[in-house]
Structures are given as structure tokens and as C-alpha cells.
Design goal:
alpha+beta; Rossmann fold; D-amino Acid Aminotransferase, Chain A, domain 1; Dna Ligase, domain 1; 5-stranded antiparallel β-sheet; 4-stranded parallel β-sheet; 7 helices; 13 strands; 28% strand
Length: 278
């Protein structure tokens, strides 16, 4: 039986409840899943590793980069690949995706940010500021005017991305389209609580299974095709702008995959993993 190390963090310890059933699904493919806390794990030669919920990695970026180096130096296999993870850690990839003809939320990259009005002169408020390397909505701020920039003091001196605030995030929510082995699996609608713009559950957001319209599903699938990558798993987060969907983020490191709302999808995920192992 092939051994697969599954990276989590100390908070989740074993598997996150959303991934309940993954070990059994892997076992059906003669794969033994072994959950490990990522920053307590050292890969041995030719290990096989799956990233799932190391959700504190952005707070320990250098240590996470060290782990990626160890994975390479031990000839280990990472799902998704090390190159993919390194690329996706830095959200400036959004500009690359726009260059592929993908419709994205307009994104400005600011290195070593100074929270001064002139830094964002080219942008129209309200704007959303977030770190280039981050997760879970941490240190993400909605700024309505230049006078409010001081509210984002946690970002002073850091590399950030700035995006226009899309009103539909509050009125409708944010869509997550899940793909396994290149095929669409299921869609989730995440909605923010009243007077909040962040949709993550840790910020009071709620999650619902969503059946997309044919037009929206076609847009999501077309976006995925333009990525032209062989991802085992991918989550594409979209917002509505008029009749279009705009990509807000591409998640191919450690996204929640929302199996709680689509339990059958975990067998599809396990099959995609087995394909890459075997």
C-alpha cells in the first residue's frame, strides 16, 4: 500500500472535519493517508505528499519555503507540484492570469507598501487591500477613502495587492468553483455577514451549496481551460460584475474544498490523487 503524507497544521492536527472520509476514499485506491503537521514534518527520500490544511503557512513563510526545498531535495512528489505552490503563494499571479485573457478583478501590486494617499492615487475608492502572501482573510481591509488608510497599518512595509471593492460581494456573495483533475465538481456560494465584506466563516460568513446557471458554469469552465495546467485540485473564486464572472483568486495550495456540501466529490478527489501517484 502506497503511503501518502497529508499536510495539516497544529490546529487541525489530524484532518479538518471538511475532509472527513478522505482516508477511506484513498484506502479504496490502496493508498494509506498519513496526516502530519506540516512544520513538524521532514520528508524522507521519495515521499509522496498532499497539501491539505496547513492554514498557518503564510505566518511562517520562510519555514514553508524550507519544506518545499526539502521536498525537492528528497526527490519527493508534491500534489499539487512544488512549482505550482511557489507560484500560487504570491498573489501577483493575478496579473499573469489577466495576460492569459482571463477576466479578473483588476489587481494592483504594491511592494514594500507605504500607506500614503499618493501610493494609491491611480485607484478609485473603495478598495480592498490584502497581503500578497496570505490566507483566510487575515490582514485584509476595506478602505473607503484615503483617510482610512491608517486602518490598514498591519500592511505597512509589506507587499500587498489592491483590488476595487466589488459591491456584489456584499449583496450576493463569492462563488467557489471546485475542479478535480480538470473537471468541474461542485460550486459553493459564500456570503458575508451584515456589515462585513469578508466571506470566510472565521469572519462570520456562511456557506451554501450552489447550482450555477449554465452561463456562469460555462464561464468558470472556460476560465479553467485558459489556465492550461494539470492541477489535481483547484478552487476558482469568482464575483459577479454585471453579467460576467470575474476571477478574484485561484487557490491551488490549501483551499477548503467544501466536501461537507458535496460528499460524493471526495471519491473524485481520491481518484485524481491516485492517478498522480500511480
Amino acid at each position: 500500500m502506497k503511503e501518502l503524507y497529508i499536510l495539516t497544521d497544529l490546529t487541525t492536527d489530524c484532518l479538518h472535519p471538511d475532509d472527513d472520509g478522505l482516508l477511506e476514499a484513498l484506502n479504496d485506491h490502496s493508498i494509506k493517508g498519513v496526516p502530519v503537521v506540516w512544520d513538524e514534518f521532514t520528508p524522507t527520500e521519495n515521499s509522496t505528499i498532499l497539501i491539505r490544511t496547513p492554514w498557518d503557512y503564510a505566518l511562517k513563510r520562510e519555514k514553508f519555503q524550507e519544506l518545499l526545498h526539502k521536498i525537492e531535495s528528497t526527490n519527493s512528489k508534491l500534489i499539487n507540484s512544488v512549482d505550482t505552490v511557489r507560484w500560487n503563494m504570491d498573489k501577483s499571479y493575478m496579473n499573469e492570469l489577466e495576460g492569459l485573457g482571463i477576466k479578473v478583478v483588476p489587481t494592483s501590486i504594491v511592494k514594500k507598501t507605504k500607506l500614503l494617499p499618493e501610493t494609491f492615487n491611480s485607484l478609485t475608492y473603495p478598495i480592498v487591500l490584502k497581503p500578497l502572501v496570505g490566507a483566510g482573510g487575515k490582514d485584509t481591509f476595506l478602505i473607503n477613502s484615503a483617510q482610512e488608510l491608517t486602518q490598514a497599518s498591519a500592511l505597512e512595509g509589506r507587499d500587498v495587492m489592491a483590488q476595487p471593492y466589488i459591491e456584489s460581494v456584499s449583496s450576493i456573495g463569492e462563488y467557489s468553483y471546485l475542479f478535480f483533475d480538470g473537471k468541474f465538481s461542485h460550486c459553493i456560494l459564500k456570503t458575508a455577514k451584515k456589515n462585513e465584506f469578508r466571506v470566510q466563516e472565521e469572519h462570520g460568513g456562511t456557506v451554501h451549496k450552489h447550482t450555477p446557471s449554465k452561463a456562469h458554469l460555462d464561464m468558470a469552465i472556460e476560465t479553467y481551460k485558459k489556465l492550461n495546467q494539470d492541477y489535481c485540485y483547484a478552487r476558482l473564486d469568482f464575483v459577479e460584475s454585471g453579467s460576467e464572472l470575474l476571477l478574484m483568486e485561484l487557490e491551488v495550495i490549501e483551499p477548503q474544498l467544501f466536501f461537507t456540501w458535496a460528499p460524493d466529490a471526495i471519491t473524485t478527489f481520491a481518484k485524481a490523487i491516485a492517478k498522480r501517484i500511480n
